[in-house]
Design brief:
By secondary structure, the protein is α/β, with parallel strands linked by helices. Helix content is about 35%, strand content about 15%. Strands 7-13-12-11-8-9-10 form a seven-stranded mixed β-sheet, with helices on both faces. Strands 3-15-14 form a three-stranded antiparallel β-sheet. The chain has a three-stranded antiparallel β-sheet with strand order 4-5-6. The protein is globular and about 65 Å long.
């Protein structure tokens, strides 16, 4: 349980509570060269322990409830987007232009799942949207040149690096200086009182209002967990930037979805902020500052608030303001090089940086709520995909062979026990059950996802 202890320590948790955690290990889960299974389990275990700790405090329990983490449940949840079915239809995970490409001197990976990113990629390369044309354009350029050209155009492309190359890169060095989970007390303002919870199941986040300003996977995974634990989660998106429908369905459990233009709807946003206990953001660092959404400005207007931030590359360094996704962080940090073979880059068996960071961020929010109840103060917590990647790479013993799991590509445990079905406004859904469990806690969400942006931008 060393990895769980590392995660719990990064969250500032009491090490004595680790005795409450047990695990069901399944070596066939999430097979990879890197210790993905162990790190994934640690992220979920730390999140579940943070939930149990807050539940004990709010319910007046003498002891923190026991936490049991099953590798099968974790592995299923970490690929929840692959298990999703909407009226029997399987989602499409990656668009045709989101892939690895050969360059004149190596490899580059692009991300073009969103239409605006696809347009910027093609404009930067000066080619039409045909994959053959993209391949021809990239084959004659260096990977680093493509990376800089596409990034300068607002698109997404990252050159393949080894772990050693990333360690000497200025952004790699900036990430290495940061802790796995950052936590800052912003002021000494008293936090809103959270009443006791009772009955079953125990919902440690009951009555907590979460303003969810996240997109894609990692941030929405964090707020999906908070919704499971009883929080009133309201996701707010800009009207002109639709979320991918299947992605929204997968991460939309336990929350409502509203549309609001932050430029023209400032009064409506300030009303939401005035009632929020937690604000979670998942945009590029600084992207929302012009709307007065930097952490200290939020704390000034809503004393006692917990601000949670998630980013791809971190808040400083030359890439601090860049866009990023799990697949691209794997390529930049050396994970893709480590997982590859036969002269080709590889990938983790799940978007583990996204999912792992999401559970860590949810855990950080829960721990911040516990600490705020004890000592007051507005709080800031941060998690970064690139820092989670560094932790994964550091967790592999030096010179070790692949972890004690079957080779990559070997089937993992049958997911059946950790899948469920429900009717929803989107149709009949098959989905992965939450892996975050503790004695007396919830086992499933009570609210299925609805259509993107269909709810009013107000608290219930």
């Amino acid at each position: 349980m060393t990895d769980t202890a590392d995660a719990w320590s990064a969250l500032g948790g009491d090490p004595g509570l680790l005795a409450q955690v047990t695990a069901v290990e399944r070596p066939e889960a999430l097979p990879a060269r890197l210790p993905v299974r162990r790190v994934a389990r640690a992220c979920v275990a730390a999140c579940a322990l943070a939930a149990a700790e807050l539940a004990a405090r709010r319910a007046g329990l003498a002891e923190v409830p026991a936490v049991r983490v099953d590798d099968g449940a974790v592995a299923t949840a970490f690929v929840s987007e692959r298990h999703l079915r909407v009226d029997g239809r399987a989602p499409v995970s990656f668009a045709p232009l989101s892939r690895f490409w050969r360059t004149a001197d190596g490899w580059v990976r692009t991300h073009a799942n969103y239409p605006h990113h696809r347009e910027r990629l093609l404009a930067a390369l000066g080619v039409p949207g045909d994959p053959d044309a993209v391949a021809a354009a990239l084959a004659g350029r260096s990977a680093r040149e493509v990376e800089e050209t596409v990034s300068a155009a607002g698109g997404l492309a990252v050159a393949l690096r080894t772990p050693a190359q990333w360690a000497t890169h200025p952004q790699g060095a900036a990430v290495a200086r940061r802790p796995l989970v950052e936590g800052v007390r912003l002021d000494s303002a008293p936090g809103p009182d959270l009443p006791r919870v009772a009955g079953g199941p125990l919902l440690p986040a009951a009555g907590v209002r979460v303003l969810d300003l996240t997109r894609v996977i990692a941030g929405p995974v964090a707020t999906r967990v908070l919704g499971l634990l009883g929080a009133d989660v309201l996701r707010v998106d800009p009207p002109g930037l639709p979320e991918i429908a299947d992605q929204h369905a997968d991460t939309g459990f336990g929350k409502r979805s509203a549309l609001l233009d932050l430029a023209s709807g400032r009064d409506a946003f300030e009303e939401l902020l005035a009632g929020a206990d937690v604000v979670v953001t998942g945009y590029r660092p600084g992207a929302l500052d012009r709307f007065g959404l930097d952490p200290r400005a939020l704390a000034e207007r809503r004393p006692g608030v917990v601000v949670a931030q998630l980013s791809a590359w971190g808040v400083d360094g030359p890439w601090g303001g860049r866009r990023g996704f799990d697949s691209l962080v794997q390529v930049a940090t050396g994970i893709a090089a480590t997982e590859g073979g036969g002269g080709r880059p590889g990938a983790l068996p799940a978007q583990a940086l996204d999912h792992g960071s999401g559970y860590l961020l949810a855990a950080a929010v829960l721990r911040a709520l516990t600490d705020r109840a004890e000592a007051g103060g507005s709080r800031l917590v941060r998690v970064t995909l690139a820092r989670t990647a560094r932790w994964l790479l550091e967790s592999a013993p030096a010179g070790a062979a692949p972890e004690d799991a079957p080779a990559a590509g070997t089937p993992g445990p049958e997911p059946g026990p950790w899948l469920a079905g429900t009717d929803s406004p989107l149709g009949r859904l098959r989905y992965a059950l939450p892996p975050v469990t503790f004695a007396g806690g919830p086992r499933d969400w009570t609210r299925p996802p609805g259509p993107w942006g269909a709810d009013p931008a107000r608290w219930e």
